[in-house]
Amino acid sequence: MGGHALLILLSVASLALLPGATPLQPSQAWSLFKLRQLLGDPPVLGTWHNYTDFCYGGDYKTASAFVECYEDSVTQLHIMGDPGAGARPLPATFSIDAFFTTLSRLPDLKVLTLTNLGLWGPLPGKISRLQKLEIVNVSSNYLYGELPRGLSQLGSLQTLVADHNMLGGKLPGWLKDMPLLAVLSLRNNMLQGTLPESLKDMLSLRSLVLASNNLSGNLPDLKNLQVIDMANNALGPKFPRLGRKVASVVLAGNKFSDGLPADMLASCYLLERLDVSGNRFVGPFPAALLSLPSMEYLSIAGNRFTGRLSGNASCGENLRFVDLSSNLLTGSLPGCLLAAPGKSVLFSANCLSTAGDDSQSQHPSPFCRNQALAVGIVPEQGHKKSGAKAGVVAGIVLVGALVVSAAVVFVVRKASAPKARPARRLVENASSAYPSNLLADARYISQTVKLGALGIPAYRSFSLVELEAATDNFQVSSLMGQDAHGQMYRGRLSNGTPVTIRSLKVNKSQSFTRHIEMISKLRHRHLVSALGHCFQYNLDDSTVTHLYLVFEYVHNGNLRGRISQGTEGRRLSPAGPSVPYTRWR
Ligand SMILES: *[C@@H]1O[C@H](CO)[C@@H](O)[C@H](O)[C@H]1NC(C)=O
Ligand SMILES: *[C@@H]1O[C@H](CO)[C@@H](O)[C@H](O)[C@H]1NC(C)=O
Ligand SMILES: *[C@@H]1O[C@H](CO)[C@@H](O)[C@H](O)[C@H]1NC(C)=O
Ligand SMILES: *[C@@H]1O[C@H](CO)[C@@H](O)[C@H](O)[C@H]1NC(C)=O
Question: What is the number of structural domains in the chain?
Fold first, then answer.
């Protein structure tokens, strides 16, 4: 036997989703009805009835409104109004303060979605009463005012999404006080001013989306970030400092005007998307961007990039979309861009010799030379000599009207099918595929849990940075074993505690709720000394891709033995009945 006790544990943990558990506390049911009333009985909650047992599942759950419980308490509340109906603000009698007061009577809430409901008012500071919040989405409402300071007290908050509201003021510096915040998205609001320098201290932050606001000035150091979307602001002139792990950078429609830092970008080997279109960039276009190994989407359209492209330049094999339009490029289009079925390549309004493709019309080459001189750029002295002479004349300033086209902002979503985001349905059907002896054991476990045990280290959420530090960036030397579901690492936390870290791939087809509920259960798994968990997010859509579970490293206990032994090629049936319980009885 042996094998992965943890996997079995996880399977047991997911039994939390089985119906027939404790009914919801009456006071919480009352709060849910009160919330419905405060929202003016929206159609989306039409399935809530007096006799609804919210923790049971059943007919009241729809894809756009549902509740998840752990035991008799609400842990998730999702109410998503119909975006098509064009939600109006709720009537003048609506009080967002009263709404959040009622909400705070659901103290175990971890995941909260309130979208397209017409909520209006400033986000109340008393949101801090919901101490367990991990994921919040309040997009597409009419929230205004500044982000409340109370948010900084939400020590477990990992994702905050408030796109399409009217939030204003500056992005507050106290965001750095939220140790686990990994995803912050405030697209299409009314934020102003410069971004706080303290953003560089947010070690957990992975995705920062502030597109379509009114932000200005240079960006702070963004070296920890993987996803950056700052489109349509007034940011610039300096290109920000990026880290090597960056995957997507969208700076379209701003006021960046210095050059692209070719050296820094050349080391961004995970960069998939770079969109700097519609700015005022000048200077040479680093053609090496085309050959970055991960690059899929590159747009430099509508700038004043110069340089002589070489027909034999190479392209990365993932490149799908390239837009070079409306710059001052000369030379010939790289062959790897031309002969490319399934690739979309735009290059009109440059001075390229286009080898037969007349559909994307070009300026005569003196145009680019003159324009380049007009903005004081010395055209890059290419390998070939012909362009070199013009450079000598730098300094002549032609005050010609620049015909740089208006900002072209591409919001093309990734087209490749396997990467397309599956419709995310959070409604989960509890599986009934577990054998009954397992169920019996699960019940036994939850009773022992209720008896309580002493001396358990506090359970908490970890940041990916902490886990990286603990395992020396998940070094091979820390690897204890692996199987089809993921890896097991040995490590040491910064306070010296030795730990084992189980990494589990989260299948996109599995719902996220399942994992949240699993974790609810694990919180009580003192018998295996679970210290905490950590999520890793998908770069595109902020869904969870990996779940890390952190356990105390048990020196002579069975746990370690069970975890580390027999890892090679051994497959564990999720319903393996008896193994893990021997130690618990
Ligand atoms: C719920 O019960 C109250 C009284 O207990 C009643 O006034 C109300 O109409 C009921 N609502 C629904 C939706 O059945
Ligand atoms: C937030 O809610 C909106 C509207 O329901 C949805 O489109 C969006 O994907 C959600 N964002 C996240 C990160 O869950
Ligand atoms: C954007 O901010 C600037 C000041 O930084 C202000 O003058 C301008 O009116 C703002 N624009 C909008 C649309 O709010
Ligand atoms: C392209 O060809 C020229 C000569 O025709 C050569 O000097 C240059 O190194 C080549 N570049 C690449 C990237 O192969």
Answer: 2
